[in-house]
Amino acid sequence: MTHIAIADQPEEELHEPSSFVTKYIWSQDHKVIAIQYSITAIFVGLVALVLSGLMRLQLGFPDSFSFIDPSAYLQFVTMHGMIMVIYLLTALFLGGFGNYLIPLMIGARDMVFPYLNMLSYWVYLLAVIVLMASFFVPGGPTGAGWTLYPPQAILEGTPGAGGGILLMLISLAIFIVAFTMGGLNYVTTVLQARTKGMTLMRMPLSVWGIFIATILGLLAFPALLVSAIMMLLDMTVGTSFFMPAIVSLGEQLDYSGGSPILFQHLFWFFGHPEVYIVALPAFGIVSDVLSVHARKNIFGYRMMVWAIVIIGGLSFIVWAHHMYVSGMNPYFGFFFATTTLIIAVPTALKVYNWVLTLWRGNIHLTTAMLFAIGFIFTFTHGGLTGLFLGNVVIDLPLSDTYFVVAHFHMVMGVSPIMVLFAAIYHWFPKITGKHLHTGLGKAHFWVTFLGTYAIYLPMHYLGFLGVPRRYYAMGSTEFVPDSAQDLNASITVSALIVGVAQLIFIYNVIRSLRKGEKAESNPWGAASLEWQTPDTPPKHGNWGPALPVVYRWAYDYSVPTAKQDFIPQNMSEEEVERVDDSETSSTEGGEDVKNIGDEPVGDNP
Amino acid sequence: MTNSTEQAPGWKGVVNDWAADKETFNVPWGKLMMWIFLLSDTFIFSIFLTSYMTVRMSATAEWPMTSEVFALTIAGQHVPLLLIAIMTFILITSSGTMAMAVNYAYRGDRKKTFILMLATAALGATFVGMQAFEWSKLIEDGVRPWENPMGAEQFGASFFMITGFHGMHVTAGVIYLIVIANRVRNGFYEKKGYDIVEITGLYWHFVDLVWVFIFAFFYLW
Ligand code: HEM
Ligand SMILES: [Cu+2]
C-alpha cells in the first residue's frame, strides 16, 4: 500500500455546521471545544479561588468565622489544591490553549479526530460535575489533602471519608479518560497534520511545550489511574493494596500487609511530571509572547526546544524528592537529589534565554508582555527555592512547612497563572475579534503581581519559623512568635485583594465582548501562522479555500533588510519587501533566517 | 525549499529527517494514534505489574505457591499450570489468525478477512471463558480479593485486579473485532482502505503481548 500524506491529498468538501446546536454545543470544531474547555476550567478555578479566600480568612483571623471548622478547612485545602492543579491548569493549558492553538499554529483545519475531541470535552465536563457533586454528599468533599495519601484518606476520621473520597477518585479516573482522548488527538495532530513547509523545527515554542506536555500526560496519568483504582478497591471491596494492619478509632480494622509507601511512589510518579504538564505549555507560550512583544526572535530556539524535551524526559526520574521525609535508603535520596539538581540546568537555560530575548529588544509593555515578564520573576523565584528543597538535608526541616507552600505556589501556582493571563491578553483579539481594555488589564496585572509577592514572600519566613502546612490553627507554641499572627493577617488581606482583583479581569472580558474595540487580524504584528488567518476570529476550517504554505520559522522579527519589522511564516522569500532591492543577499538578514532549520539560530544579537 | 530535502550530515541529518514537514511517520492518522494509545496503555499495565510485585514483597503473610494453586487434576494426575498453558496457547493462536486477516484485508479478500477476524474474536471469547472458569475455581477454593486461606490476601487482590483488567481489554477487543469484521463484510472500507484491520490487529497483538508478561510475572514467579 502506498500511503499519501494527508496534506498532499486533495481536500474533501468541508461540512459547515448550520444549526446553533451543532455550531456551539455539540461542536466538533477545535476552536469551539477550546472555548468550552476554557470556560469550564475558569469556572472551577473560581471555585478554587473562593476556597483559598476562605482558608486565608481562617488563618488570618482565627475563630472569627464559625462556619469554618477544622474539617471544613481540610476539605477546602484539598479541593483547592486538586482543582487548581488538575481541573484548572491542566485543562486550560491543554484542553483550552492546546485545542485552540495547535491546528492554527501548524496550519491544519482541525484536530485529526474532531469527534473524539468533542467527546473529550464532554467527558471532562462530567469529571467536573462529579467533583462538584462531592460538595453535596453527606460528609462533604474529601479532606485528605490533594495528595490523597492512604491510609488516612479512606479512614473514618478524615473528613469526607465516605462519599467525598469516592467521588474524588471517580472524578479523577473520568478526567484521565477525557485527557487521553484529547491528548491522543494533540500528539497525532502535531506529528501528522502539519501543513506544507511546517517542519517540527519551525513550530512555535507554544506548540512544542503543549506537545511534550501532552506526551508527559499520556505517560504519567496511568500512574494516577492505577493508584485510584487500587484505592477504590481498598475502600469498597476491602483489598489491602495500600492498607497495613491498622487500629483506627480504637478498632482493629480488617486490613493487613499493604504498602502505603507504594501509593506515594505511584502518586508522585504522576505528580512530578504533572508539574511539568502545566509548566511546559507555560514555557512555550511565554517564549512566544516575549518574542512578539520584544520584536525580537526568541534567543536560542533550538536550545529551547531541546530543553523542553530534556526537561520532559528527566521529569520522570525525580519523583521521590517529594518523599524524603517518608524515609528511604540514603543512596536513593542521593540519586533523586542529583537528578533534581540536574533538571535545574535546562530550566535555568530557558530562563537565561528569555532574559536574553528581552535584551536590547524593542519592548512593548502591553498587558500580555507585563504578565510574561512577571512570569520570569515569579518563576525564577520559585525555581530558586526549589533548589533548596531538592536537597535532602535542607528539605527535611522545611518539608510540610509554609516554606513549601510558598515554593510551590510561586513555581507552579502563580507562574503558570501569569502565563495564562499573558496568553489570554495576547490571543483574545484573535479568538473574539475584540480588544481587551489596556488600562484595566494593566491594573489587573499590577495588583496581581505585587499581591503575589505580598502573599508568598512572608510565607517563606513563616516556613523558616516552622509553621506547618495544612494546619487549621496554630494555637500557641514555643517556636512561633506572636508576631507571626500579624503576618498571617496581612497575607490574608493581600490574598483577598488579589482575589477581588480578578473581578477586574472578568469585567474586562465581558465589557470587551459587548462593546470592545474591534480588533484587526494581526494587532501585535506577530509572525506565527495563527495570526495570518483570512478571518478574525477564524472561521470553521480556519484557512478559507487553501491551506497556508510555510517558508520560515515563527520568529522573523526586526529582520535587518526587510521593510516590515516582521515576516509572517507563510511569506515566501520573493514576497518579502527589502529595504534596498539591489542588495537582497546581504547575509546578515534574509539568508541567515531562511535556513533556520539547519543552523543553530538566535545567537546573533 | 523545506529542510527535509536538504542534506545534512550525522545527528543533524537525523533530526532534520524526523522533523520534516507534514508527517513524521509515514502511516495513517489512526494507526499512529493507536500506537500512542498503546504506549500509554503499556504504562498502565507496567504500573499494575510493578505494584503487584511491590505488594508481593511487602505482604506480611506467606505468598501461595502459584504452581500448586493453578493446577488441574486430570485423571488423578496433578498437572500444574495446565489451564494457563492452554489459555496462552489460544491467545497466541488468535494472534496468528489476526495476522492472516490483516494480510487478506490488504489483498482485498473481504470474505476471508471477515472469517479470520471472527475466528480471532471466537478465540478471544474462549480465552475469556476459560479465565472465568479459573476465577470460579479460585473462588471455590476460598480466595477473595480481601482474604486468602492459602496465605497473603494480596494474592487474590492482585490476581483478580490484573487479570480482570486484562480480561476487560480482551472483551473490548472481541467487540471491536466483531464490529470491524461486520463492516469489512459489508464493504464499508472499500473506499477508505483496509488500514483499520491492521489497526485492530495492533490492539489485539498488544493485548496478547501483555498476557505473556502477566503469565510470566504472575504464574511463573
Ligand atoms: C490567590 C491565589 C491563591 C491563594 C491565596 C492560595 C492559598 C492557599 C492556601 C491558604 C493553601 C493551604 C495551605 C495549608 O494550609 O497547608 C493552599 C494550598 C495549595 N494550593 Fe493554593 N492558593 C492560591 C492559588 C493556587 C494556585 C494557582 C495553585 C495551582 C497550582 C494552587 C495550588 C495549591 C496546592 C496544590 C495546595 C496544597 C493543597 C494541599 O496541601 O493538599 N494554589 N493554597
Ligand atoms: Cu517534584
UniProtKB/TrEMBL annotation, chain A:
InterPro entries: Cyt_c_oxase-like_su1_dom (IPR023616), Cyt_c_oxase-like_su1_sf (IPR036927), Cyt_C_Oxase_1 (IPR000883), Cyt_c_Oxase_su1_BS (IPR023615)
UniProt keyword Iron present: yes
Segments forming domain Cytochrome oxidase subunit I profile: 20-551
Keyword flag Kinase: no
Composition bias type Acidic residues, residue spans: 572-583
Keyword annotations of the record: Electron transport, Heme, Iron, Membrane, Metal-binding, Respiratory chain, Transmembrane, Transmembrane helix, Transport
Transmembrane segments: 32-52, 72-94, 115-137, 165-187, 207-233, 275-292, 304-325, 331-356, 368-390, 402-425, 445-467, 487-510
Protein name per UniProt: Cytochrome c oxidase subunit I
Organism of origin: Aliikangiella coralliicola
Species classification: Bacteria, Pseudomonadati, Pseudomonadota, Gammaproteobacteria, Oceanospirillales
Automatic annotation (TrEMBL), chain B:
GO BP terms in the entry: aerobic electron transport chain
GO cellular component assignments: plasma membrane
Family: Belongs to the cytochrome c oxidase subunit 3 family.
Heme-copper oxidase subunit III family profile domain mapped to chain residues: 31-221
Organism: Aliikangiella coralliicola
Name of the protein: Cytochrome bo(3) ubiquinol oxidase subunit 3
Transmembrane segments: 32-49, 69-92, 113-135, 155-181, 202-220
Reported function: Cytochrome bo(3) ubiquinol terminal oxidase is the component of the aerobic respiratory chain of E.coli that predominates when cells are grown at high aeration. Has proton pump activity across the membrane in addition to electron transfer, pumping 2 protons/electron.
The organism's place on the tree of life at top rank: Bacteria
